[in-house]
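2024-03-11 09:14:02 DEBUG pipeline.ingest accepted 1 chain
2024-03-11 09:14:02 DEBUG pipeline.ingest length=400
2024-03-11 09:14:03 DEBUG pipeline.predict start
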Amino acid sequence: MRFDEFDLHDEILEAISYMGFEKASPIQEKAIPLILENKDLLAFAQTGTGKTAAFILPILDKIAHSKGDSINTLIIVPTRELAIQIDQQIQGFSYFLPTNSIAIYGGGDGSDWVTQSKALKNKTDIIVATPGKLISHLNVGNIKFEQLQHLVLDEADRMLDMGFYDDIQRIVSYLPKKRQTLLFSATMPPKIKKLSSAILDKPEEIAIELSKPAEKVLQAAYLCSENHKTPFINHLINQKEDYKSILIFTSTKAKVNQIVRGLKNKNYQTDGISSDLEQSERENVLSAFKAKRTRVLVATDVISRGIDIKDIELIINYDVPGDAEDYVHRVGRTARAESEGVAVTLINENDMFRFKKIEELIETEIIKLPIPPEIGKSPEWNPKSQNFRFKNNQRKNRKK
């Protein structure tokens, strides 16, 4: 199903088109109509199924058609990383709308609190918040939810695993009873059933499995310390002289410039594209890449959504993407229209656990290779190491 079949606001469709989306994922196809009909929703979907857009798009559509002067939507998430990620996606999808949002989370300095308080008092349309920080603002009266229309709980099972059940119930007590509530969870433990029965009103239920990369994509990974990544990419590209179209993904704008600088002195044209560029500059960069004047393009995930180019022969994930959805999307830039392609991911010591989780979600074990010894020594594959460090830190914090 195409996005223009949902009868969404024109400015939302324009943003979707600009980001390179055409067809809705299964969860988007099922959830968007129900949300537009103001149904409560209980959805079971793994990270990586496109669930964020499934609730953001119809909510933005309703805000666009009846914009008020109060907080319209509250999205509660378990971690600051997810809060930031969702807020960034809201900004992308609402690029052509007069809609604003803010991520509310802890861990910053005092200036963060001041910025958040000001945004909340100025009637921000959409709040994306972690439970603890949101309660801190509620305690001092920074937020008024009298006219709230939508409550979204994302990764609800994870929040309950982290002990946020009582916090969620407390937050809900501040909200109007007449609202639309959307609960997304990867699993359905008894606590989710208990929570959903308490806060949802006659919900519709949907369950979605994760999409997977195309079969004609040859996937591989190299175990590579951070300081060896750019030298290894130079080596890899020089070994693949027959590859005329290479796309490198990274998760931050700062790394785009860093990678481009590391490749500039080679005998091929390299360019970078990120949201730091003006639209005309981005169009020029993409045109050069499409025309094969630029052999290597370095891009962020946000900009990558607008890259729909045939005959990309090699995808390089400079760093492991944040979740399986991003991985599947990046890898999907090659092997399009029944062609074949290669996707390579560079895995440093800190990203092994995350990459293992991606493998589990896409149900594919990807071959791991060492980098050439003349470039450096590869770290040993140990996907449990990050988990152990996390647990050890928890134990240390308990002792403190």
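2024-03-11 09:14:41 DEBUG pipeline.report The chain has two domains: 3-208, 217-385.
2024-03-11 09:14:41 DEBUG pipeline.predict end
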